[in-house]
Amino acid sequence: MASTNDLKNGMVLKLDGGQLWSVVEFQHVKPGKGPAFVRTKLKNVLSGKIVDKTFNAGTKVETATVDKRDMQFSYMDGEYFVFMDMQTYDQLHVEKKAVGDAANFLIEGFTATVAQHEGEVLYVELPAAVELVIQETEPGVQGDRSTGGTKPATLETGHQIQVPLFITTGEKIKVDTRTSDYLGRVNS
């Protein structure tokens, strides 16, 4: 248990019958009249839904222990992604729904943060940007280069993104894992 006066960004609370909510932001408010309160923005750990919630100052809230570990993605085992803990070499099978959009950017050997609560995997988090190779893309047409247009390209993971026309098959690029945006070439 913690008090609303102890809230910090990233802290995970157990509210509404055991649902896990991560504190995105909080603000202590002391109006001229009436009791102080805490205004928070909370994100549901499983669904990603964001809500605003207000607590009276000093209210007790239940905190949840979320264990975040860096693990290396090893391979796919049917519908499961297999991660290896780099300290203990234990393998962890993670369901596709817990991996979410991170699956679009995972290749063998990538390190990701795996968050668990009481043995259940909540989510898998990748770095903000990853480097991947373009598996396939159409060649850019000579006259198109001046327009700054984009074309579809398939990454080595099979995920499709938009890249500038000058990018060719086999090039290594940097990709934003949150938006699937092309961020630039990687010089080897």
Characteristic terms for this protein:
five-stranded antiparallel beta sheet; 188 residues; 16 strands; Elongation factor P; cytoplasm; six-stranded antiparallel beta sheet; translation elongation factor activity
Provide structural commentary:
With 188 residues, this protein is mainly β. The chain contains 1 helix and 16 strands. The protein has one helix spanning 96-99, and strands spanning 2-3, 12-15, 19-29, 37-44, 50-56, 60-63, 67-77, 80-85, 91-95, 111-117, 120-125, 129-137, 150-155, 160-164, 172-176, 182-185. The protein has a 6-stranded antiparallel sheet with strand order 1-6-2-3-4-5, with no helix packed on it. It has a 5-stranded antiparallel sheet with strand order 9-8-7-10-11. β15 and β16 form a beta hairpin. The relative contact order is 0.13. InterPro entries: Elong-fact-P_C, NA-bd_OB-fold, Rib_uL2_dom2, Transl_elong_fac_P/YeiP, Transl_elong_KOW-like, Transl_elong_P/YeiP_cen, Transl_elong_P/YeiP_CS, Transl_elongation_fac_P.
